[in-house]
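Quick start: read one record
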Amino acid sequence: MNILVVNCGSSSIKYSLFDADANARPSILASGLVERIGEATSRLTHKAPGAADTRDVAAPDHEAAFHLMVEALTAGPGAVVAGPGEIEAVGHRVVHGGERFAESIRITDEVIEAIELFADLAPLHNPPNLTGIRAAIRLMPHVPHVAVFDTAFHQTLEPHAYLYALPYALYTEHAVRKYGFHGTSHRYVAQAATGMVGKPASEVNLITLHLGNGCSAAAVRGGECVDTSLGMTPLEGLVMGTRCGDVDPAIIFHLIRTLGMTVDEVDDLLNRRSGLLGVSGVSNDMREVTKAAKDGNERAALAIRIFCHRVRKYVGAYTAELGRVDALVFTGGIGENAAHIRQETCDGLAPLGYVLDAEANAAPGDGPRDVATADSPVRILVIPTDEEAMIARDTARLAAE
C-alpha cells in the first residue's frame, strides 16, 4: 500500500511516500519538503532513489504546495508512482490530541472539529496541521486520511503523573494538565528496544530519551508510558535548543515585575531565546555549541554540562519510578549522533546500573546498537527514530480496516 505521510507546519510541508502495511517495516519510496509557503519564492526539495530535485517554486498557500508535492511524486525524474490514484492513504502528524485521542484515528469531520478545539493548547502546531489535513482531503477526497497524535502515547499516564498541584478546577474546567509530546518517536524506539532486549513487551521497562532541538524523556513500563518530561506545552522538562525546560515559575513574576517584561516577551524569552542558545550565546545547534566548547568557549561548555545534568536527573528520577530498567534508549539528532553527550549523561550513573562502553559508544554507526558494557545491568541503546515510518504503519493499519 502506498502511504503518503505529511507533516504540515505553518510555512512548510514535509512529506514521505512509503510502501507500507500494518505489520512489516515500511520502505520509503521518496521524501521531500516544500518550504517558505506563502512567501514570494518558495522552495521544493525532493529525493527519490537515483534522483534529487531542489528548485524555487510558487507556493502561495498549502493547497498549492500539496499540488507541487504530488507533482514531484508522480512526474519528472523523481517520480515514484504513475499518478495520484496510486496514493492509497494519507497519514498526518498532529501535535495535540488532548485527552480525546489515545491512539491514531481515521479522520472524519468530527475528528477535525476536535483537533480545532485543541488549537488553544498547541497554537503553533494544530492550526497548520489542520490546514494540511484540509488541503490534502480536498486534493485526495476518496482515500483514507489518518491522524497520528504526538500526545497519544502519553495518554496512559495516571492522574498522579499528569496532574499539577494546582486548583483542581483548572484541570476540570480548563484542561490544565501534562500531555507530553514526541509520543510517536518514543513509541517507535520503545518498540524497537523491546525487540533488542529480547523479552515480551509486557515485561520490559525502558527510559527513552528523544534529544534534538526539542528534547523529552519518557518512562515506559510494559509498553505503556507512565511518565514523561514535556508537560502541558513543549516547554517543561529537559534543556532544549531554544527552550529552557524546568525553571522556578516565580522567575516569570520576577521578569515581569522587575524588568517590566510583557507576557509575550517572557513567552519569547523562555521558548525562543533560552536553552542551549541562551546559555552558550552561540547557537541552538548542539554541533555548533560543541565546536565552540572545544575551541575554549566556557559558556558553550557550561551549556553542555547543564544539558547533560538535566538529562541525568530525569534518568535517575525515572529509574526510581520504574524500579527496574531493562534499557536506556538514546534517539533524536543529538541522542543518535553525539557520543560525548551520551558519555557525559551516563557519567555517574554506574551505581544505578548504567555502564557505558566508551569504545562502543565512540564507534561510528548509523543503525540500532548497544553501547553498554557486556556486564552492564542495564542495556544502553542508540536507536535512530523514524516517526514517519510509525505514522505510515498506523495509517496502513487503519486504512485496511
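Residues 298-322 form the longest helix (25 residues).
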